[in-house]
Amino acid sequence: MNLIAVLLPPLIAAALTGIPSKKSWWAPGVSVLSCLVVLLLAGRMAWRIALGSSLTAALGAGWSNWVAIDGLSALILLLIALVASTAAVYSVGYMAHGQLTQGKLRLYHVNYNLFIFSMLAIPLLAEPTLVWIVVELTTLCSALLVSFENTREALEAAWKYVVLSLMGAGFALFGFLVLFAAMHATGSGPYTWSALLAAAPTMPPLLTQTAFLVILIGLGTKVGLVPMHTWLPDAHSQAPSPVCALLSGIETTSILYVILRLFPVMQRVPGAHAQIWALVLGLISVGTAAFLLLQVTDYKRLLAFSTVEHMGIILTAVGLGASAHYGAVQQIVSHSVTKSFCFFAAGATLLGVGTRQISAVRGLIRRAPIAGAALLLGGLAITGAPPLAVFLSEFAILRAGLVQSQYLVSGLLALFIVIAFFGVMVHVNRMVFGTAQANQAQEDPPHEVEAPRFRLPFSCTLALIVAAVPVIVLGLYIPAPLQELLKQAAAALGR
Amino acid sequence: MSATTRQLVENLNALATGLFLLTAFGIVGTRQARGCLQLFIAQSLLLAASAGLLGLQFHSQHLYGVMLVNLITKPVIVPWLLRRTAPVEIYTRREIDQVLNIPTALSIALALAIGAYFLGVPLTQALPPEYHGPNVPIGIAGLFLGALTLTVRREALPLLLGLLAMENGAFLAGISIARDLTMLVELAIATDGLIIVFIVGVLVRAVEQHVGTTAVGALASLKEAAPHAEREVTP
Question: Which residues of chain A have a CB within 8 Å of the CB of B185?
Fold first, then answer.
């Protein structure tokens, strides 16, 4: 089986959804089908890698310079496929709710599939400059999804997203070219992740470190690391909710994956301090996001800031060293499944109440029970309440930090996580259980009592239920093949 | 190649990169949107010239390829694509309310260029002598000045050109230190530049239609802790 096969369904789907059709189920149906095929293929690859077979070795010599897959990339691939599938199912009902014209709906699905294609290519490609190109493509394919609603805010968010991401990418391109020069100076063969790893001990340290820093800053912009995060809450809150789930749940992690690929390389370069950079940038991101969470007024922005926090946690975990690597990859998994679920819940809330303002939503559990329950579960899950998935991974990271006697880092991390927990839960609690404030109650007291119960579209409910399964199950039990995959992925982060 | 010819080619490359730096300054400081576009085209031609001269110096087919790709995409296809996607207004704009006034912006640009020199020279020193030359420091300066353009300008076209100028800067450094990169990558990067122009053009058109301005950099209603009701009144 060729690895490239997994890239074909989204490309075909992008072409098919572009065909004008009078049937309203055509474009959403094709997207869902394509994502399910991708999930099947990615699941099969991940399964085989977990069982210990090397898929890269089975490739022809010509291919292995361009594509490769190991535990870490298989894990990212699987997560992308999983979130893309649930988001595609969720899109069916969510976009139908918006009374869009057929043309507009086609535009959404073409861009959706192209966006999925560009993300799937990130873990599969082995040539760093090609990876850079698909990272650019993720920005470009999702830009029109962010601006989809064409409101002033959405356009502003899309514009900031494009300009800042591409600005970061410009720096990252320079970094990747310098990295190539450093590798080429040692006389090693074609430019791939594995060749970089092999050449690392003899690469000129100055060039390698410069390249690493430039790439960390450049791609860190797109991951949303503080202080380059300013575009993220805008873009991740203005896009339609299924797109937010993709942006926050897996786009950030798959770009972070590219940065993580450089850590084992840097560990072999004498005198490089990549881990310190990871700790510093990671802790600054977690800390800043935790405090910003307290003052948000828009619940989708709340979730977006939580993404900044989680990216910081993952980077900090990578900086803590080998014993925290398992926790780091576990956090990648739990972040992706939980954050996408959260955005589905936020989307359901938005459909139910029609506003993104936290202060305007009270007593959600009575008005839209499914959305309310989902938002509550999402809020608890994303902040690391036991016994859900994020709790397990954050606990693993903190424990690894304590085992390594990194008391200051672990202490700060724990403190920020607790602050973020309160920051999110204060808002979510009011939205779900709160009663309308006095002044609002006087203006229209019957409103809250008599407002009809909101019925969520079936596909949205289905996507919420399916997305909730890993959020709950992975907190209690990690299946053996997944555990094996996580171990391999963690091993790929070290030397 | 005789020593004199080699010297001549090296000098011509130094001239091309020097002029490249000048155009980067120009993109930061030119008020007329159309002027910015002309400077960007000049910059791309100089990049192509530098690629061709380095190709001559090191007998690299690959660099000739880079030269060709640059000659075709940036001076020809980019303006054509912009005409097809973006509204005409972006050309006619004259920017008067930049974030920083022009002398300040140019002073910062000068400081950045000097910084780029001190950053770039040690980098090339770490490589064999054939990689020494003005390309890396000037490429870094191009990268910085492109980023500066993005921060000080508000009009759509100069912002887009700032993005592309950053890529030009990275490339100018790249053709000197990474000249054995495969052609596939170069082609992909060139295509990517065109997709940037297309998407940004579409986005600018949408902003122009729905918000009624092409000064996209001036959009600033998304902020923390500002209720929606208050946001609406800000123009």
Answer: 127, 129-130, 133
